[in-house]
């Protein structure tokens, strides 16, 4: 029999590589690992890579196995889901993987200037109603700038045409350097072992015949960022674990 949520939360509380700081706990409590991830936790100076909205953490665990020369931190607020990757990485003794349970809206409270080299956004909720909630919005780009190295890399992997289109507009509006882009990852020449890691939900979308989109771009530190003023056609399908689309036709 699988564990229930309370049992999973109890496990997580005792895991040495899991840090739990939901929004309510961060109001007046400084995060002791900020600026000290290399020296205090990973015990090395290798690049740190974040996965924001990690879900079950399969991508972080997969990347950690493929790249022992890098450090990976998976971030999400859903602890019961995160338990899967946290448990697997602990059981196999991975030393280059950590998990941070918190609200992504306050992600800049956990990392110091230039402490992170890359960010992965894997199947983020497109947040079609409000731009500031989208993880590729300029609202979040300004937060990433606080801890991402100059010209740090951001990866977006998504099933959402809305999210993909919005991100392209955001990149174009701010002239951000793009390294790779495709509207159909698994029928392109960009697929490699890294991009081929599939999350649980990604496999569900592939089984439904949905194409997976991918953008890899850099985020310079200089210049003010501007939000694109465009209307984008909303996704017409219902993704797993996402609320049903209703009463919407376009969004800004």
- Percent helix: 25-40%
Measure the end-to-end span.
Answer: 45 Å
Sheet-strand content, in percent, reads 15-25%
Number of strands: 10
**Oligomeric category:** single chain
Low-confidence residue ranges: 240-250
Shape: globular
- Output the number of helix runs: 7
Residue-averaged pLDDT: 89
Order of secondary-structure elements: HEHEHEHEEHEHEHEEE
Q: The biggest beta sheet, please?
A: 8 strands, mixed
Strand order, sheet with most strands: 1-4-3-2-5-6-8-7
Give the C-alpha Rg.
18 Å
Class of secondary structure makeup: alpha/beta
Structure description:
The protein contains seven helices and ten strands. It has helices spanning 5-14, 37-42, 58-66, 79-91, 138-145, 161-174, 200-207; strands at residues 18-20, 48-52, 71-76, 97-101, 116-122, 148-158, 178-182, 213-219, 232-233, 250-251. It has an eight-stranded mixed beta sheet with strand order 1-4-3-2-5-6-8-7, with helices on both faces. Strands 9-10 form a two-stranded antiparallel ribbon. The longest helix is centred in the middle third of the chain and has 14 residues, at 161-174. The chain is globular and about 45 Å long.
């Amino acid at each position: 029999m699988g564990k229930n949520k309370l049992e999973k939360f109890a496990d997580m509380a005792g895991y040495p590589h899991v840090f739990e700081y939901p929004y309510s706990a961060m109001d007046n409590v400084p995060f002791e690992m900020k600026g000290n991830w290399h020296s205090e936790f990973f015990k090395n100076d290798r690049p740190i890579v974040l996965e924001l909205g990690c879900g079950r953490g399969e991508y972080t665990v997969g990347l950690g196995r493929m790249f022992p020369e890098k450090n990976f931190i998976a971030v999400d607020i859903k602890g019961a889901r995160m338990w899967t990757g946290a448990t697997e990485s602990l059981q196999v003794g991975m030393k280059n993987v950590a998990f941070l349970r918190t609200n992504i809206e306050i992600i800049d409270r956990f990392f110091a200037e230039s402490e992170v080299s890359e960010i992965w956004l894997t199947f983020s909720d497109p947040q079609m109603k409000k731009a500031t909630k989208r993880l590729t919005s300029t609202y979040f780009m300004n937060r990433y700038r606080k801890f991402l190295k100059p010209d740090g890399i951001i990866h977006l992997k998504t099933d959402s045409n809305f999210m993909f289109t919005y991100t392209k507009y955001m990149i174009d509006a701010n002239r951000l350097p793009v390294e790779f882009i495709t509207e159909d990852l698994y029928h392109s020449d960009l697929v490699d072992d890294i991009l081929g890691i599939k999350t649980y939900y990604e496999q569900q979308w592939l089984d439904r015949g949905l194409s997976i989109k991918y953008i890899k771009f850099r985020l310079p530190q200089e210049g003010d960022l501007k939000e694109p003023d465009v209307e984008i056609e909303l996704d017409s399908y219902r993704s797993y674990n996402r609320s049903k689309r209703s009463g919407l036709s376009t969004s800004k």
